[in-house]
Amino acid sequence: MQIAIASGKGGVGKSTITASLLYLLKDRYSFVAVDADAEAPNLGLLLGVTEWEEEREHIGAKVARINTESCVRCGICYERCPYGCIYIDDDGNYVVNELTCEGCNVCGLVCPVAGTINLEEVRSGIIRKTTTKYGFPLISAQLDVGKPESGKLVTEEKEWASKLMKELNLEHMIVDSAAGIGCQVIASLGGADVAILIAEPTPASLSDVQRAYKVVQHFREPAYLIINKADINPGFRGLHEWAEREGIPILGEIPYDRTIPESMVMLRPVVEAFPNSRASEAIRKIAERIAEEILG
Amino acid sequence: MQIAVSGGKGGTGKSTVAVNLAVALKKLGTELTFADLDVEAPNDHLLLGVELANEEPVMQFMPRFDYSKCIKCRKCAEVCEEHAIITMRDGTPFLMPNLCSGCRACEIVCPVSGAILEGQRLIGHTYVTKTPYGFTLVTGKLMEGEERSMPLVVAAKKKAQAIREGLLFIDTAAGTGNTVSKAIEFSDLLIAVTEPTPLGIHDTELILELGKLMGIPTWVVINRADLGEKEKVHGLARKYGADVVAEIPYSENIVRSYVEGKPIVLTGYPEAEIFTGLAKKVLESLGGGE
Ligand code: SF4
Ligand code: SF4
Ligand code: SF4
Ligand code: SF4
Known about the structure:
Low-confidence stretches of chain A: none
CATH architecture of the largest domain in chain A: 3-Layer(aba) Sandwich
Order of helices and strands of chain B: EHEHEHEEHEEHEHEHEHEHH
CATH superfamily of the largest domain in chain B: P-loop containing nucleotide triphosphate hydrolases
Helix content of chain B: 25-40%
Structural class of chain B: alpha/beta
Oligomer: heterodimer
Radius of gyration of chain B: 22 Å
Strand order of the largest sheet of chain A: 3-6-7-2-8-1-9-10-11
CATH architecture of the largest domain in chain B: 3-Layer(aba) Sandwich
Order of helices and strands of chain A: EHEHEHEEHEEHEHEHEHEHHH
Number of helices of chain B: 10
Strand order of the largest sheet of chain B: 3-6-7-2-8-1-9-10-11
Low-confidence stretches of chain B: none
CATH superfamily of the largest domain in chain A: P-loop containing nucleotide triphosphate hydrolases
Strand content of chain A: 15-25%
Number of domains of chain A: 2
Number of strands of chain A: 11
CATH topology of the largest domain in chain A: Rossmann fold
Mean pLDDT of chain A: 92
Shape of chain B: elongated
Bound molecules: iron/sulfur cluster
Distance between the termini of chain B: 7 Å
Helix content of chain A: 25-40%
CATH class of the largest domain in chain B: Alpha Beta
Number of strands of chain B: 11
Largest interface: A-B, 60 and 59 residues
Shape of chain A: elongated
Largest sheet of chain A: 9 strands, mixed
């Protein structure tokens, strides 16, 4: 089974909760964990990973390059780039800003001088695998600065994870989804059997999680909700009302608890570092419900 | 003048800093337009306590095929970097709209005039909202299910540039992908909001790297400065030649103001001073603003 954990935006504690859930479920189930937040991966850090067993460069992003020698400075590429990624440098040369280029090749198609603009494949990031000290394997990716196509990195991560599941005979894949609702998240949620959404009781987080849920609906996956920092905004009922309206079961509520940031600083799951804290108790209950209702 | 506020990862308090700094700058008399370019999760209006207004659709080109003219040469499918066009065995092209980025490469290569017609697709919206703080907020919001945020970042930024008054003040998405580069492009100053946790430190390095690659002078604001090892953030900032310009302690007042959608800089809480001080520094560095 493939479970994706998503929130619509970072910062609501998704990775910390995921790390704790993995820790609590590891003895009863076999799984591979995937950190699909290629722009800011941190599940590895939270699980105390310091070394990677295997790394693969992901070549696949494309960026345009202009050969200044043969360019006749007609400016057509500059006019036609749909994303405004071509500029004129101080010497009057037309140059592609590789940090914003989407690799669509429109400039190359419109350039009147054959061979002047070439679309080149560049490294877009790195994907790596390790076995955590808790025994289960983890796959993580890191997008290079200023590169497009983080969704493709996530797709490749999940392909690697599927292969591992077969090789090691693992039952589940647990994906810590990226922030946002774009290609990375679509790649994270696509193919999942169940989505677990995490939100905190603020209007901003409600708005983010509702948007992520629309992507979940697109894939027709059953969804569950976990409310984090449940007590920071006592008057706010928005999450409950929304979950009720949509028929999304609430797996549990985790109180705001300083042991969570403290465990992050220690780079350990909070349920391991502070097993008796209020947050850990709440997370343990949630893990039980996941075991009963989802993993079976 | 253009200033961008960014942070390597989500949840560092980037939006809180952006919103409060914008309000503080305006209070000090700077004309500005605020652009929320976190198009996948735009929240600044919630923090400012305003409802989005003046919705405008962002349409994107997508090809429509006139099958009576198409000669099934497959050129459009071959050129599409997004693989948004699939062809049947006989060469008939079909579009998968979700994957199309609207770049027009297919239209450019199609050898038959009129075989590819102008289609349009809604990919999101921009909003132009007057705020009670004296500046206008421009927001870009991507439709759920859309893969590519770049076209919306471009559209929202253009909109903000078109209506801007004075300083263009930009809040970006989290991360360091190319849509963040697009948002911060042409900034005179990048303010990176970080956290001194190991995760925050890891992401700080990436955003500093992006600032360096783009040649934009970068400042660092350390949020929740008392949680973790801020010396490491200082060390990284030194390595990249960036100044640490403010440290914000972990504060219940800030959490509360965030939750309530009231900028803390307008309150009497001591935390307000931090943002006012930061705004003054920004004005000094920009020579009094515009
Ligand atoms: S490949 Fe596309 S995005 Fe990149 S510079 Fe050329 S036209 Fe612009
Ligand atoms: S279209 Fe080709 S020749 Fe013209 S400016 Fe661009 S690169 Fe140079
Ligand atoms: S507009 Fe660009 S992305 Fe869309 S189908 Fe044509 S070539 Fe592909
Ligand atoms: S390039 Fe034009 S003629 Fe050729 S298959 Fe595509 S639409 Fe048809």
